[in-house]
Amino acid sequence: MAPTNTAEVIPFNRPGLENDELDLLADAIKSGVSSAKGPYSKLASQILIDATDAAEVLLTTSCTAALEMSAMLLDLKPGDNVIVPSFTFVTTALAFQREGATLRFADIERTQLGIDPASVESLIDDRTRAVVPVHYAGIAADMHGLSSVLSDRPDIDIIEDNAHGLFGTYEDKPLGSFGRFSTLSFHETKNFVCGEGGALVINRPEDVTRAHILYDKGTNRREFLLGQVDKYSWVDKGSSFGLSDLLAAYLYGQLRNRESILSKRRAVFDRYQKALTPLADELDFTLPVISADRGQAYHMFYVLLSDKARRDAVLAKLSEGGVRATFHYVPLHSAAGSQFTDMPTECPVTDEISGRLIRLPFFNDLGESDAQRVIEAFVHAAEATL
Ligand SMILES: Cc1ncc(COP(=O)(O)O)c(C=O)c1O
Questions:
Q1: Which ligand 1 atom is nearest residue 67's CA?
Q2: Which option is the CATH number for 258-384: 3.40.50.970, 3.40.50.1860, 3.90.226.10, 3.90.1150.10?
Q3: Under a CB-based contact definition with an 8 Å cutoff, are residues 185 and 63 in contact?
Q4: Which residues have CB under 6 Å of ligand 1?
Q5: What is the pLDDT of residues 277-326, one digit of tens each?
Q6: CATH topology classification for 21-255
Q7: pLDDT (tens digit, 9 = 90+) per residue, 137-180?
Q8: pTM for the whole structure
Q9: Which of 176, 82, 68 is nearest to 128 (CA)?
């Protein structure tokens, strides 16, 4: 039955407000320091450094900007290639294409929906410079499998696109701490938000100085501020990547309430999982698998339906009932990505999963009664489409 007014619609996402973000934002505005690397940037970055044990964290205007910075730091040459999953957001790939790399699209494996190490192995050659795993839904990709495929190629860097996985773990090690670089997103759809924002996590101390130069529009401004040079000037490539301290204040308000945010998200996940697990066989759908060696970041709750026609029908029925569920990732290898590869690939698992996946509404303040409504609407739609 269609909703009678918009108040009945359960949105897919609603960015959360914990308690003190507005006060922090007002303080940042009044402080007179609102450009990048202000005091709130330092506070927010420090939380991220502590969480990932990084050498440095630079807050950026988006995860896309952080991916672009990591691509610039690789100094890619014409003919170099970078391996990305086909099942990901456009900019996981675009950031590297923009810096001149040729792209190679790997398939995903079926359990975690992360990049498939066997597919990566089939794409590597002597011009491969980096592989970019995504920890889809905040659940770790197969980092063991990936490192064993790369064991005799220390020249190939791992760059983790950790847009979904902040505070997730793999074998008790934080996501974002495996690669030479990792990238975070604080877009309004993510677990921790500031409107638009991101971060570059730098795991090797030897990358820190140059990363600051690229971040400071190609200048050695940081060395000048540290008193290491008597004036600063243009020394390298770079751009304007920094997040305003106003947004960093908002972000800091979120990050310092991380326990509360994660526990709210865990409650939503557990509610869906508890209600839907007993029905999965009977109604022919599959739920996320979180193996014992992975601590998930509670970024989303997805369900895999038996096929695309049924998935589309379930999405339509949910929408009619005022529940805004959505699909995920139009495969990149067959979209514009096909223009940017020198080795066209088939990604059958990506194609299949992309057709079967539904993400249910998922946000911090999704209360018990709304979650129950989503569950009932989903069960009804799944029964009606069997
Ligand atoms: C895996 C992944 N990487 C990167 C991004 C881009 O993040 P941002 O919007 O912060 O640039 C997204 C956005 O949803 C994403 O899902």
A1: 4
A2: 3.90.1150.10
A3: yes
A4: 62-64, 88-89, 91-92, 134, 161, 163-164, 185, 187, 198
A5: 999 999 999 999 999 999 999 999 999 999 999 999 999 999 999 999 99
A6: Aspartate Aminotransferase; domain 2 (3.40.640)
A7: 999 999 999 999 999 999 999 999 999 999 999 999 999 999 99
A8: 0.96
A9: 82
